[in-house]
Model the fold of this input.
Amino acid sequence: MTTPDVQGVVRDILARLADEPGGLLPILHELQDTLGYVPQEALPQIAAGLNLSRAEVHGVVSYYHHFRTDKPGRQVLQMCRAEACKSMGADALIAHAQQRLGCKLHEQTADGAFSLEPVFCLGLCSSSPALMLGHTLHARMTPAKFDALIEEARS
Ligand code: FES
Done:
């Protein structure tokens, strides 16, 4: 997406949400839902629209791990690292995922197909380990199921 598109998206979101109480977080969420990330170039425009300093907006974006500032891969793969999943082998599963995809957490595959991200609880603790690919949750994940999932997602 080019710079004018980002500006247009931000302008639309500001027009709808700038007057909402506590508008910054809903605006950032909406922007990430729309573009897949919160581009650095959007921060001055958001700050101006809300009468905040750039530092304030930047501080909120960097405080919440949910917000990513780099353009993600075509599909985002979030792997749970919280306690229940850890107790059911999440660390080994993440190691397998990194090896299988050839990238580390917070990175994306060389072909841009997947971004690999950690997440802290997906609400599937009783069916751990869990992950989310795009908007779809997957429970009781194993390395073999992971490989099949990636294979299917690539096709
Ligand atoms: S701890 Fe992983 S889903 Fe809750």
Observations:
- The chain has two domains: 3-63, 75-154.
- Residues 80, 82-85, 121-125, 128, 130 surround FE2/S2 (inorganic) cluster (CB under 6 Å).
- The beta strands are 75-80, 107-108, 114-119, 131-133, 136-138.
- The radius of gyration is 17 Å.
